């Protein structure tokens, strides 16, 4: 990947100098353990350090999860049934076991079948995602029972609201552990840009201090030095001023302001909007949405709609969370390292 690079550019490798461009997915046939849950492939995510040699396996990446199902089909790791191949609407559902979180993800997407019977994921389509150029086929990701992905609990601290460094926070674990803090508590404007976050004196340092304190209370580390680099992620929330958007968020990922929104941050935020008493709930612009309606989240790159099914608020059982993304194979080849 080109790490470690003290200049933070990863020019001597495949990385792009940003946390979102320094990642690796490792895909293999499902183990006996994951096959017992119906999984067809195992997926391990690695967050690669940029200026360091650190490789963090502590959490999952929702965006890269979208590439796993199509890759599994294209690489021949998953064989489709005759029924799936002959169906008029040709789609495949690949059940994925994420080893980082020990959770199941169902990936559903269109396929194309050649006259010789070979199968590959369909790349072309009319689905668009904010922050991604062009259009592609749509991939539906269903995160099954995603709560407690890393900590074993929806609310890892046991509280709907905690206070860290004088700032209110809701700590929640859906897909990955997350921390949500109000922009007004910091205080900064809700629509602060990633560049403004980086340039505001002391802001990133304070957010990291809050993140470290929260991680310890969430049971993810005993000391600040033991806190993983990639999780929990800390997010700044505010009430949106755009019509049709339910809540606005700015995410910090591995010490850098994210240019868009990590999928797992979207999963956690969508669930948090439905929890009365959370720090998130008062900032939601529309709290009267129907149960099946997605939560529309505003981020620096546009919006993301996330569906979240909670069995009932008292038990706080999250049955599934759903997002739509796109992904396609760009190349095959060998990577040379030294």
UniProtKB/TrEMBL annotation:
Any single Pfam family the record assigns to this protein: PrpF
Record bears the keyword Ion transport: no
Keywords from the named record: Isomerase
GO molecular function list: isomerase activity
Keyword Isomerase: yes
InterPro entries: PrpF-like
PANTHER family the record matches: ACONITATE ISOMERASE-RELATED, DUF453 DOMAIN PROTEIN (AFU_ORTHOLOGUE AFUA_6G00360)
Organism name: Trichophyton interdigitale (strain MR816)
Gene3D superfamilies on file: Diaminopimelate Epimerase, Chain A, domain 1
Family from the record: Belongs to the PrpF family.
Full protein name: Methylitaconate delta2-delta3-isomerase
């Amino acid at each position: 990947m080109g790490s470690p690079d003290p200049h933070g550019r990863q020019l001597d490798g495949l990385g792009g100098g940003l946390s979102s461009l320094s990642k690796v997915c490792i895909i293999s046939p499902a183990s006996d353990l994951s096959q017992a849950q119906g999984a067809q492939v195992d997926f391990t995510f690695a967050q690669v350090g940029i200026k360091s040699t650190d490789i963090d396996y502590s959490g999952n990446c929702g965006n890269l999860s979208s590439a796993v199902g199509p890759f599994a089909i294209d690489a021949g790791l998953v064989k489709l049934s005759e029924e799936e191949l002959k169906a008029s609407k040709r789609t495949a559902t690949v059940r994925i076991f994420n080893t980082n979180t020990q959770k199941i993800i169902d990936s559903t997407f269109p396929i194309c079948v050649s006259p010789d019977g070979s199968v590959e994921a369909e790349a072309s389509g009319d689905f668009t995602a904010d922050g991604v150029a062009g259009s592609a086929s749509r991939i539906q990701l269903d995160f099954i029972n995603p709560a407690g992905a890393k900590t074993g609990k929806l609310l890892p601290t046991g509280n709907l609201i905690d206070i860290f460094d004088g700032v209110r926070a809701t700590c929640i674990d859906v897909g990955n552990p997350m921390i949500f803090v109000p922009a007004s508590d910091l205080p900064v404007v809700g629509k602060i840009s990633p560049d403004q976050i980086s340039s505001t004196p002391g802001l990133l340092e304070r957010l990291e201090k809050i993140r470290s304190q929260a991680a310890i209370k969430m049971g993810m580390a005993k000391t600040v030095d033991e806190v993983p680099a990639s999780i929990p992620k800390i997010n700044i929330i505010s009430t949106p001023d755009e019509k049709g958007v339910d809540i606005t968020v700015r995410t910090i990922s591995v010490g850098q302001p994210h240019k868009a929104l990590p999928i797992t941050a979207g999963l956690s935020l969508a669930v948090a909007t439905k929890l009365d008493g959370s720090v998130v709930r008062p900032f939601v612009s529309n709290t009267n949405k129907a149960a099946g309606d997605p939560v529309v989240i505003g981020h620096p790159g546009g919006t993301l709609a996330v569906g979240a099914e909670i069995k009932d608020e008292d038990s706080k059982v999250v049955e599934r969370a759903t997002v739509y993304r796109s992904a396609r194979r760009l190349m095959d080849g060998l990577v040379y390292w030294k």
